[in-house]
């Protein structure tokens, strides 16, 4: 009698460790508030734990760690995409221990995927290395309904929603953005924190270098981040009147909801990169309570706002600004 043995579903320890290291490297490319990269990964026997890194939190701009948690959510989504593209199945537990809120997620690898990796998953993983922040005006044609539908689907798949602002609401958004930034710029502690994380060449591997900050004011209906100075990024004189503005929002306003919002941001941004849409997150109106409430009013109190997005088409013949620096993988992962 012949006995057929089923192939083992238990991951090879060496292969899994290599996959997890590659996963953390990919996750380290995620977008984050002021490029602080506020995540710390810990490798366990069967996966990864994601924690907030206290030394890279914004005490003034983000005292409740709302945007840092959202940033970590983007890194978590990057990690999920990377693992799936490498052919691994994983289960994610978000906020596994409420008594330790800095422990945001546990990602457990269940074993090799039973089916071949889909081409879409492989392409999505490759897009991680292509995605970057572009603060230039959007001088190309407006995005169409099909692109908007694609982005709505990407955000919805991660448990959040995307609200597209009507043209008459953009004035309210612009007013709130202007108010938020004028208020912040008169706060000395806020100025000091911003100066610490932006400007220069950023040799430490984090923060926003001058190469990605516009060299002059942009012609735009909604002001972008005011860094307190101009950088080295050349921009055209075009006005991005064709830009579309949207709000990522959801029902809850707790760390788990912020984490989901970051995963939704990652999904939307990777999708946008694939379909040729420029996506720029605008967080100024989320950082202060009064303007966050104004954003909720734009949603007709249908949910809590997590982040504002500018969507459109950049100059097609331009490669865009430099990529922001990244911390080495060994500085964002602990081996247990």
UniProtKB/TrEMBL annotation:
<dbReference type="InterPro" id="IPR000415">
    <property type="entry name" value="Nitroreductase-like"/>
</dbReference>
<protein>
    <submittedName>
        <fullName>NAD(P)H nitroreductase</fullName>
    </submittedName>
</protein>
<dbReference type="InterPro" id="IPR050627">
    <property type="entry name" value="Nitroreductase/BluB"/>
</dbReference>
<dbReference type="GO" id="GO:0016491">
    <property type="term" value="F:oxidoreductase activity"/>
</dbReference>
